[in-house]
Amino acid sequence: TIGDKEEGQYEQAKEKVTTSLKDYFRPEFLNRLDEIIIFNILRPEVIRQIVEKQVAIVQKRLKEKEIALSVSQDVFEYLAKEGYNPQYGARPLKRLIQTKILTPLASMMISQGVMEGGSVSVGVGKDGEFTFDVKKNKRAKRKPSASKKKKEVVA
Which residues are CB-neighbours of 62 under 8 A, at least 6 positions away? Predict the structure, then answer.
């Protein structure tokens, strides 16, 4: 079964790591360690779940500002593929979300005026770059201009 296969792979990996540690470190050092923990390699479906959770955090932050964020399946796939490194795990994922989604989105909020009630859809274009479809709220609150302010009459 799958569980037995994974258990066998884990034991093989643990044995290789233990042998490598013994070859590299002196026994005096290894005896000072309480325990050696070996983490399992993340499966693609687990990485996808991590991506979904991280994107949900971004969506929640934007929802607090009343901005809707929708993300295509292609974006999830891209982030899962590019945000994972076997050596570092899913650690690079947050940085990737920052550079591919949050930074461009912040620039759009400033330059295009995406504010309360607006929405942004993120996709992946044919060139592999992220695309952003911005829809502004038509009923956005505007500050009254100086010409429309009531003039005070001084008597």
Answer: 68, 69, 105, 120
Q: pTM for this one?
A: 0.68
Query: Cβ distance 134 to 118 under 8 Å?
Result: yes
Q: What is the pLDDT of residues 48-81, one digit of tens each?
A: 999 999 999 999 999 998 889 999 999 999 999 9
The tokens of 8 are what?
A: 């066998």
Over the stretch 74-113, which tens digit does the pLDDT of each residue have?
Answer: 999 999 999 888 778 888 899 999 999 999 988 888 887 7
Instruction: Give the 3-state DSSP-derived string for the chain, with helices as H, strands as E and coil as C.
Output: CHHHHHHHHHHHHHHHHHHHHHHHCCHHHHHHCCCCCCCCCCCHHHHHHHHHHHHHHHHHHHHHCCCEEEECHHHHHHHHHHCCECCCECCHHHHHHHHHHHHHHHHHHHHCCCCCCCEEEEEECCCCCEEEEEECCCCCCCCCCHHHCCCCCCC
Asked if 33 contacts 85 with a C-beta cutoff of 8 angstroms, the reply is no
